[in-house]
Specification:
CATH architecture: Sandwich
Distance between the termini: 9 Å
Number of domains: 1
CATH class: Mainly Beta
Number of helices: 1
Low-confidence stretches: none
Mean pLDDT: 91
Radius of gyration: 16 Å
Helix content: under 10%
Structural class: mainly beta
Order of helices and strands: EEEEHEEEEEE
CATH topology: Jelly Rolls
């Protein structure tokens, strides 16, 4: 019997929505709830960001994607006290960069980000030169998937 690798897309997870309203430039923003990959055990995820900024973003603008894992089941690797009270994004939590053009309305994607089998919280930190508008229409979505051999 031959073996075939299948891509198995799973349910979309809305990681950040209302938290992004009026988010300031260079301000970290993290989901208030865990994504339980300890149970789901997805190997990869693609992330999709949408935001409307107060004005066109600066040249060279970017948005960092951070994942803070709860590897011991209790504490987050948040570069602080492990409770996500005041998470401090670092190179250890950085999992990708959305490169943003000089636009005010932005749709951007990160593809095939590897995931670990632990619960985590997703977050972003913007370096765009602009704040997001004060509306609740922005979002960060995750499309988890596995490679499955059959």
């Amino acid at each position: 019997m031959s073996s075939e690798t299948l891509w198995l897309p799973k349910t979309v997870a809305n990681l950040l929505t209302t938290e992004l309203a009026n988010l300031g430039d260079e301000t970290p923003c993290f989901d208030s709830a865990d994504y339980d990959n300890a149970t789901n055990k997805y190997q990869f995820a693609s992330f999709f960001f949408f935001g409307t900024f107060d004005a066109a973003c600066d040249a060279g603008a970017l948005i960092e994607l951070h994942l803070m894992y709860k590897m011991d089941g209790t504490h987050y690797g948040d570069n602080e006290d492990g409770d996500m009270g005041v998470p401090l994004p670092s190179g250890n939590s950085l999992h990708g960069i959305f490169h943003i053009s000089e636009q005010a309305d932005v749709y951007q994607q990160l593809l095939d980000v590897p995931l670990l089998p632990f619960a985590f919280r997703a977050g972003i930190r913007m370096y765009t030169g602009q704040d997001l508008t004060d509306v609740e229409t922005h979002w960060l979505k995750m499309y988890p998937h596995n490679h499955e051999g059959q």
